[in-house]
Amino acid sequence: MSSSATWANAAERGSIGALRAIAWLYRRFGRSLSITLMTPIAAYFVLRDGKSRRASIQYLRQLHDWPEGRRAVEHEPGLFDSLRHLREFAISIFDRLCVWTGEADRIEIRDEGSEHLFQLAREGRGAILLGAHLGSFDMLRVLTPLVADLDPVRLAGPDAEPVEDAD
């Protein structure tokens, strides 16, 4: 079984109680404390969930073996790298919570390269973008105001409906 199939078929390990507790802490104490809690949460999964740890390290090793991937993973991945990987995964879930509760403005969004797209839009030209799902589709809601003056983005994927051009 591939690692992607393992992740796709893995049962949810968290609890609704833990999510409620984190949401309460977030509302009471803010984002900084809540993000700080992601490290011990990730450490729990690294130490207690061998399947997640092995899948994480396997993914990071595949990334490391790819020449371009060495920019992100410069050395042979190990336990600490898996901790960092699972922590980032936990933060992405936490960011979804922020989006769902209408507090996306607390999330730092780094935007690199969009100036090229805006230049194309100013020139009346289009572009085809190829990408991978490296984050949360919920974040598209946050980014929508940034591109409000552009034509609608057409998304394609295995579940996407065909879009007829309105022109």
Care to describe what's here?
- It is a single chain.
- The protein is mainly α and 167 residues long.
- 54% of the residues lie in helices and 0% in strands.
- It is built from eight helices and no strands.
- Helix 5 (50-65) packs across helix 6.
- It is flat and about 55 Å long.
- The chain starts with a helix and ends in a 24-residue tail after the last helix.
- The mean pLDDT is 77.
Taking all Cα atoms into account, the compactness measure Rg is 19 Å
Span of the ends, CA to CA: 45 Å
SSE order: HHHHHHHH
Secondary-structure content class: mainly alpha
- CA-based shape: flat
Give a quick precis of the structure.
The protein is mainly alpha-helical.
SSE blueprint:
Layout: H1 3-9, H2 16-29, H3 31-36, H4 38-48, H5 50-65, H6 79-100, H7 114-122, H8 139-143
Task: List its traits.
about 170 residues, mainly alpha, about 55% helix, flat
